[in-house]
Amino acid sequence: MTDGDTGITGADQAYGGKAWNVVGHTYTPKLHTENAMIWHASIPDGTFVPPHIHPAQDEWIVMLEGNLDVEFGDQVHKAGPGDTVRMPRGIAHGIFNRSGRTATCVFGVAPSRKLFALFGALDGVTDPGELVRISAQHEVDFLPPPDAS
């Protein structure tokens, strides 16, 4: 942000006029600076973000409506309205909506690094291999799927 970028991003607006479909979720940016990025997310039931790591960013979620399961390895934490989920840099986490209804929340990362560009590059991507490849180029590392044996 610059000094000329003060103001309000309205509830029905997106920062920079952009919104993205990422892994079936609708992400609407609300703030983007070098130091932080905040976005509103609508997460339909049955969708998820597979386990991944942000090696250079801290991430958080503030729940507005609905419920999410956030997995840190074999630990599952349930988050509901009003809860804040903390996901420190370097810690693998996955986000799952198994609640039976859409969840809405506000995500944030600090510093923003390449995440704004990543969401633009992932908008509408449905191939898992392509999602992993593009994400790695933007400092988000997805973990390999669990061994089926």
Q: Can you walk through the features of this model?
A:
The protein has a single domain, classed as Sandwich (Jelly Rolls), CATH 2.60.120. The protein has a six-stranded antiparallel sheet with strand order 1-2-3-10-5-8, covered by helices on one side. With 149 residues, the chain is mainly β. The chain contains two helices and eleven strands. It is 12% helix and 40% strand.
The CATH architecture assignment turns out to be Sandwich
Distance between the termini: 49 Å
Going across the biggest sheet, name each strand in turn.
Answer: 1-2-3-10-5-8
Give the fraction of residues assigned to helices. Answer: 10-25%
* Coarse morphology: globular
Q: In CATH's first tier, which class applies?
A: Mainly Beta
Whole-number tally of structural domains = 1
- What percent strand? 35-45%
Radius of gyration from the alpha-carbon trace, in angstroms: 15 Å
| CATH fold category name | Jelly Rolls
Instruction: Calculate the mean pLDDT score and round it.
Output: 93
Could you give me the name of the CATH homologous superfamily? Jelly Rolls
Count of DSSP-assigned helices: 2
Q: What is the multimeric organization of the chains shown?
A: single chain
